[in-house]
Each structure stands twice: as structure tokens, then as C-alpha cells.
Task: structure prediction
Amino acid sequence: MNESELLQLIPEYVLGTLSEEERRQVDALLEHSAEAREELRSYQEMMVGVAALSPRRQAPVHLNTDFKKLLEQSTPVAAPAPVSTTASNRPPLRFTSQSLLLAAAAALVLILGVFLITRTVQQNAQQQQIAAITGDASAVRVTLDVQPDSGAQGQVSFVAVPGQDRGVLLGTLPELPAGQQYQLWIIAGETPIGVKVYDAAELTSEILVDLPVPARNFGVGITVEPRGGSQTPTPPIAFFGSYQTS
Result:
């Protein structure tokens, strides 16, 4: 096969449906052709999330032979069924690259559709919970003050309904370097509990927060931490406020 014909086999190479000889030729092409490697990478990325399209691995030949022997030993030999003279010998089904692309595209569209619908439902549910908290007449709102010597800038507030296990965080904070994030802390007694890390962009809208303790009396603080957060707050605390219900 020439290089153009081998490139057409890459979709089936990804799915594992090539013969040994065809696979050997594609392997050889991939070793010296940057175009072929890029084509392979594109198809591999396309197949992420569509594992159902991958063909099942064929059972070893000896299993089929052993099974036939068992049938012959346990079952009387039956007369062969008459062969229809009108039946035509059809060539084995062979997927084309176009059909594989269409199947992969359809599967990806389905997966993306399900993902978008699920995310939209989740976002709507969160927005409803945020509205219920911020619109509750008994909710307590706390402004988190910039702490001295922290050098922090921006504004942050926290609101929760007393006794509930969720609150809402809202702030306008400057962007941090790529390796840092803001981390929210709930200080119950003398124990700071890391709740979640945020990028500045996330804090431009109201964020639903799962509280580690019921909303009663505790401190609410924000620190600047390495990306991914820390087990304990890194001083100095940038913002702090006291949530009090009594």
C-alpha cells in the first residue's frame, strides 16, 4: 500500500480492527511520518469517551476448537443443513474511515449533550439554593475585612441562614500568580477548617459553599495558598470576618 492508503487505515488502527499485516505497515508508517503520527493523535483524542465503539477482542483460536470437540463428544452428529443455492457469498464487512468518523462524531455529540444537560441541571439547582439563602430574611451577612499587614486587596462577603450547612461566598479579588489560589477557612473554636480553594474569576459570582459545621458562631477567613490548597492556613490571613447568630 502507498502512504495515502495507509493513512486511510489509521481510524481502524485506533479501533484495533486491522489485520496483522496492515497493522505492521501502519506501524512502519508511524515511525517515519509526522503526518501519520498527527493523524493518529487526532483520532485517539476523538475516541476519548467513546470506548463503546472499540471492537471486542477476539477469543483465542484454541478456545473455539476445544468447544467444538466438547460438542462432538456430548452431542450426536446431526446431518448438515441443506445449503441454499440462492445464498450469495457476501464479503466481510469492512468499516470505512468515513463511517468510523461519523460514528465517532455521533457518539461524541451524544456524550457532550448529556454532559451539558447534566451541568445545566446542576447549575440551575445551585442557583436556586443560592437564591433561597440570600433571599431568606433570617440570613446573616458578614463582610470579611482586609487584615492589617496582609497587603490584600478586594472585597469579600459571606452569607448563611443560621443552623444550615450551606452558605454563599461572594467577592471581587485580584488575580493571583498561576501557582496560587484563594482558600476559604471556617474557624470553629480554635480549629481552622479548609473548605475550598478558588480562583479570582470564580469569586466574581455567588458561590455555594458546603459548611463543615452548622452556621452558628465561627470565624470566616481567606488566605492565599499554593494551588490546590493547604492543610493549615498560610499567614498572613488576607480577609477575616466573624459570623455570629447570637
Summary: The chain has two domains: 1-54+94-134, 140-243. The longest helix spans residues 97-134. Residues 51-57 have pLDDT under 50 and may be disordered.
